[in-house]
Design goal:
The protein is mostly helical. Helix content is 59%, strand content 0%. The protein has helices at residues 3-18, 22-29, 33-40, 49-58, 63-67. The termini are close together.
C-alpha cells in the first residue's frame, strides 16, 4: 500500500462517515475536480502536505485529526 492509497482510503471513509459528496469536498477544500478524482482513485504520483491540509480543511478538521487513523499507522506503507 502506498501513501496515496492510504490518503484515498481515509478520504473515502470520511466522505461516507460525514455524508459528504465529492463535489462538496471539492468546494470546501479548494481541490479541483480532476485532482480530486486522481486522489480518490490513488492515481496521484505524490500526495503533498498541502493536499492533505486541504482535504482536512474540506472535512472541517485539523490535519492531525485527518492523519489520526490506523491506516497511517500501518508498517507496510510504501514511501517511494
Amino acid at each position: 500500500m502506498t501513501i496515496n492509497d492510504a490518503v484515498a482510503i481515509r478520504t473515502l471513509h470520511l466522505m461516507r462517515q460525514k455524508n459528504i459528496t465529492q463535489y462538496r469536498l471539492e468546494q470546501d477544500s479548494g481541490i479541483l475536480h480532476g485532482s480530486m478524482d486522481r486522489i480518490l482513485q490513488s492515481k496521484n504520483k505524490t500526495v503533498t502536505f498541502t493536499t492533505i491540509y486541504r482535504l482536512a480543511r474540506g472535512f472541517h478538521m485539523t490535519i492531525y485529526e485527518f492523519l489520526d487513523d490506523d491506516i497511517f499507522r500501518r508498517n507496510d506503507i510504501e514511501l517511494d
